[in-house]
Amino acid sequence: MDTEKWLEHAIDLALLYAPKVIMAIILWIIGNLIFTRILKIAKRVMLKREYDISLRGFIAALLYWLFKILLILMVLGTLGIETTSFAAILASAGLAVGLALQGSLANFAGGVLILIFKPFKVGDWIEAQGLSGSVKEIGIINTTLNTFGNQLAIIPNGKLSNENIVNYSAESTRREAITTGISYDSDIKKAKEVLLDIVHSCDKIMKDPAPSVMVEELAESSVNISLRYWATNDNFWDARWHVLETIKVKFDQEGIEIPYPHQVEIQKEPKRELNY
Q: 188-200 and 236-254 helices cross at what angle (nearest 10)?
C-alpha cells in the first residue's frame, strides 16, 4: 500500500515538474545557441574595427560569463526557483568587489576606453601627466612610455583617460615657432630676410605651407621676431636644431645683435644723520 502511494506521489511530481524541466532544457539549449551566435558576431565586429587583441579577449570573456549567468538565472526561474535572492547576492558581491578595487577598476575602465577610442597607438610620441615619450605598450591597467632619456614611465590608465593628452604623432607634419630677440638698434627688415633665407636653404623644412616671419613683440630690451615653419615629424628636431644654430651664426655675420637680458640694480644711499 505504501509503495503504491509513493509511486502515485512520484508520478504526480513527474507530471507537475516534467514540463518545467523540459522547458528548462530547451531554454538552455536554445539560449546557448543564441548566445554563441551573438558572441561570434561581437568578435567579428571587434576584429573588423581592429580592437586591440587583449581588449578583444577581455570583452569576449566578459560577454561569455554575463550570458552564462543570465541563462542560469532564466533556467532557474523556469524551474520555479526564486532567483531574487541569487540576484541580490550577486549584486552585493559585485558592490563589495567594486569598493575594494575602486582604484584598479578606474584604471581598468580607462584602459578599455583608451583601447576602444584609440587617442594614441604604440609608437606614438605623446605628452601626458607631466611626462612625454614614445608609447611602448598599452595595457588594460597601465600605459608604458619610453622617455627621451630612455627611461621607462608607467602611467595609470584611469588618470590618462581623464586628463589632457598631446599626441605629437597623430599628424604627419608639425609647425614650429621660434622667437628670436634682436636689439632696437638692429635692422628689422634685414633680420627677417636672414631668417627666411635660413629656412629656405634647409631641405628638412617644408616649402608648402610657406615659412613666415613677423614681429611678435616690442619687449623692454629687444624686438622679438617669430619665425614659423612646417616640417615632417621625422625631420622636425633636426630642422629645429639646424635653425637655432644657424640663426646665431648668421646674425653674428650680419652684425645683428641678440641682446643680453637686462636687469636694473637700484642702490640707495644710507640716510645721513642731521646734526642740529
A: 140
Instruction: Please report which residue ranges of 127-187 form alpha helices under DSSP H.
Output: 157-162
Angstrom distance (rounded) from CA 251 to CA 223: 14
In single-letter form, the type of residue at position 256 comes to I
| pLDDT one-digit tens code per residue, 185-212 | 999 999 999 999 999 999 999 999 999 9
Q: Is the pTM of this model over 0.85?
A: no
Q: What angle do CA 190, 194, 195 make, to 5 degrees?
A: 120
Provide φ and ψ at 192, rounded to 5°. -65, -40
Q: How confident is the model at residue 68 (pLDDT cuts 50, 70, 90)?
A: confident
Altogether, the residues listed in the chain come to a count of 276
Distance CA 258, CA 273 (A): 46
Burial class for 138, CB neighbours closer than 10 Å (0-12, 13-18, 19+): buried
β-sheet with 173-182: strand ranges across = 173-182, 223-232, 212-218
Q: Cell numbers 584611469 correspond to what residue?
A: 158
Confidence of residue 101 (pLDDT cuts 50, 70, 90): very low
Q: How many other C-beta atoms can be found within 10 angstroms of the C-beta atom of residue 242?
A: 18
Q: How far apart are CA 204 and CA 7, in angstroms?
A: 95
Q: Which tens digits make up the pLDDT trace of 116-145?
A: 888 998 889 999 988 999 999 888 888 999
